[in-house]
Amino acid sequence: MKRVLACGLLLACLIPRAWAAEGPPSISAASAILVDADSGRVLYEHNANQERLIASITKLMTALVAVESTPDLDQLVEIQREYTLTEGSSMYLKVGEAISLKNLLYGLLLASGNDAALAIAGGCAGEIETFVDWMNQRAKDLGMEHTHFANPNGLNAEGHYSTAADMAKLAAAVLDQPVLAQIVATKSITVADRTLVNHNKLLWRYEGCTGMKTGYTDKAGRTLVSSAERNGQRLIVVTLHDPNDWADHAALLDYGFSHYPRHILARAGKVFQTVPVTGSLNRFVSVETAGPVFYPLTAAERVRAEVVLPTSVQAPLERGAIAGRLVFYLDSVPIGETYLLYSQDIREDTAQNGNLFGRLLSLFRGEAAVWLAWTLPVS
Q: How confident is the model at residue 96 (pLDDT cuts 50, 70, 90)?
């Protein structure tokens, strides 16, 4: 039989009370969102689901689809004339030269090369149109319900749009790709005889910034996706049509780190409690947490934990086998969980089941009443 135990975690004793009580900062963006990258919790939003032009932050999807579709980043792409015939920011590709996909990704994400975007699309898919189809399919996979791409570089086009909320989902997926996380965090690099400097000024201005992508067109205005990490917590900010984006991102990141710090709800490998055992000389077996659980919380929030474990277990038991679950709730919403695992091997002692010692042992454990009836004389 399984049992569910509920307990309130008194996080007040764990969370500093020195935080300021003021609300989020005032910003200039038409649309904005602040998200905890690992939990997905939205910490701030303003018109976050409003569909808008997004300019060159489109290239985050171009990069993601490129590394997922073509794992060999040393693959060379021969530059076609059509790749160089594009307006706006450029990596200054030359017709006929061969550049590795990885170097093109640096040109895409640091210099925001529109030519690099076309070269990547053509090199990975053979045709730019096919690559754009892949971009739209990947958007669906990520749950970007208000997004559609018409090209891989973000130039204004009919049917090319997204939202701040959707771009935050994309940003989290990009951060989970180690090679892309490394590229967007690079301040400057020399590749293919070109020195590239990252357009993202937050890499120099904001402590803990881990990069992402800038964008601009006359119609879209300034668009920006940024990420930062402090004390193991990763935050993502997206703003669309924001004339003061550097300052707004810094203010939102400060707000997130100070008001919603990441807290440890469970640590991996910690003994949680013990469970009675039958069929063994071992009376109890301990269970431990399988993995850590983290979540961003304010000073006023309380988390409730539910423990799902059997009332007793039957030997034999194997160390590392699943015993139950530990689930955490904020209000009634589950925010994280970890399995509870047996922390030791328990051998089955079959000899005890049929002898007097075994029956007496079961009696003292308070197991089944049938043992009482079987061992005590009937009056």
A: very high
Separation between Cα atoms, residue 284 and residue 361, nearest integer Å: 13
Give the separation between CA 197 and CA 109, rounded to whole angstroms: 10
Determine the Cα–Cα distance for residues 142 and 173; give it in Å rounded to an integer.
8
Q: What crossing angle do the helices spanning 128-141 and 59-69 adopt, rounded to 10°?
A: 100
Residues in a beta bridge with 52 = 162
Q: What's the pLDDT tens digit per position in 149-176?
A: 999 999 999 999 999 999 999 999 999 9
Burial label for 22, CB within 10 Å (0-12, 13-18, 19+), is exposed
Residue from 335, 147, 102 nearest 238 by CA: 147
Contact 113, 120 (CB under 8 A): no
Q: Which residue has the tokens 């668009």?
A: 223
- For residue 182, the 8-state DSSP code is H
> Comparing C-alpha atoms, which of 39, 33, 13 is closest to residue 299?
13
Return d(Cα 100, Cα 138) in angstroms, integer. 23
Q: Are 237 and 32 in contact (CB under 8 A)?
A: yes
pLDDT at 7: 44
Q: Supply the residues annotated as catalytic.
A: 56, 59, 112
Average pLDDT, the chain: 89
Mean pLDDT lowest among 67-76, 88-97, 344-353: 344-353
Bridge partners of 337, per DSSP, are 327
**Distances in Å between the alpha carbon of 149 and those of 57, 121, 137, 167?**
11, 13, 10, 12
> Do the beta carbons of residue 204 and residue 187 sit within 8 Å?
yes
- State which amino acid sits at residue 270: K
